[in-house]
């Protein structure tokens, strides 16, 4: 079962390790030290973002974050999405779990359980490097659509958007459970 555990300071060495791995560094170009400092500030409630470890059957394998775009004026100026829109960033730190279909399921679950838990949030967006086909395909499979291209740090990115579903699922409706067996892997 996929869980989203709020990031804690004692998780930061693991996150740093993931950010240093080649398959992550290729796309996560922010300064390592600045990223870790930002995560510490968010944990302390000094930065308006929420960061979560992605855990499957007790094994942390990535991190996902969300924030209101309007809380970051420079970013809001680039994406121009208006009020009530959350941003989402995802990384899968364990390389053996990339390319196995986890990304779309993580994004679907996170949008439903975390992002859209806030009734004022009507959409979420992500800017995915145009060259990172695997990532933007994961967003597409999770229901995000490409709305336009934006430039970030001199590189073209696909702005992906997911709107709140018009019909909320029936709470009595059974929900799929994802585990290692579902994806043919073991922790």
Please describe what this structure looks like.
- By secondary structure, the chain is an alpha+beta fold.
- It has one domain: 3-Layer(aba) Sandwich (Aminopeptidase), CATH 3.40.630.30.
- It contains seven helices and seven strands; from the N terminus they run βαααββαβαβαββα.
- It has helices at 12-20, 22-25, 32-43, 73-79, 102-113, 133-141, 180-183; strands spanning 2-6, 49-56, 59-68, 85-92, 123-129, 145-152, 155-163.
- A seven-stranded mixed β-sheet has the order 1-2-3-4-5-7-6, sandwiched between helices.
- Helix 1 runs antiparallel to helix 3 (32-43).
- Residues 174-187 have low confidence and may be disordered.
Give me the count of strands. Answer: 7
CATH fold-level label: Aminopeptidase
Name the overall outline. Answer: globular
Specify the oligomeric state.
Answer: single chain
H/E order of the elements?
EHHHEEHEHEHEEH
**Main sheet makeup:** 7 strands, mixed
Report the span from N to C terminus. 12 Å
The CATH superfamily title: Gcn5-related N-acetyltransferase (GNAT)
**Helical run tally:** 7
Q: How many whole angstroms does the radius of gyration measure?
A: 16 Å
In CATH, the architecture is 3-Layer(aba) Sandwich
Provide the number of structural domains: 1
The SS-based structural class is alpha+beta
Give the low-confidence spans. Answer: 174-187
CATH class: Alpha Beta
Percent of residues in beta strands: 25-35%
């Amino acid at each position: 079962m996929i869980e989203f555990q709020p990031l804690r300071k004692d998780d930061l060495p693991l996150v740093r390790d993931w950010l240093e791995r080649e398959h992550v560094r290729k796309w996560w170009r922010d300064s390592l030290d600045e990223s870790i400092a930002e995560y510490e500030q968010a944990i302390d409630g000094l930065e308006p973002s929420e960061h979560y470890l992605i855990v499957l059957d007790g094994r942390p394998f990535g991190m996902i974050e969300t924030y209101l775009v309007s809380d970051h004026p420079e970013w809001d100026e680039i994406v121009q999405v208006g009020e009530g829109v959350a941003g989402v960033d995802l990384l899968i730190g364990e390389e053996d779990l990339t390319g196995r279909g986890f990304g779309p399921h993580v994004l679907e679950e996170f949008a439903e359980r975390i992002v859209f838990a806030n009734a004022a949030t009507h959409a979420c967006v992500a800017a995915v490097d145009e060259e990172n086909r695997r990532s933007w395909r994961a967003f597409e499979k999770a229901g995000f659509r490409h709305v336009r291209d934006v430039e970030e740090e001199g590189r073209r990115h696909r702005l992906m958007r997911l709107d709140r579903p018009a019909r909320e699922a029936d709470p009595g409706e059974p929900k799929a459970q994802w585990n290692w067996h579902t994806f043919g892997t073991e922790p």
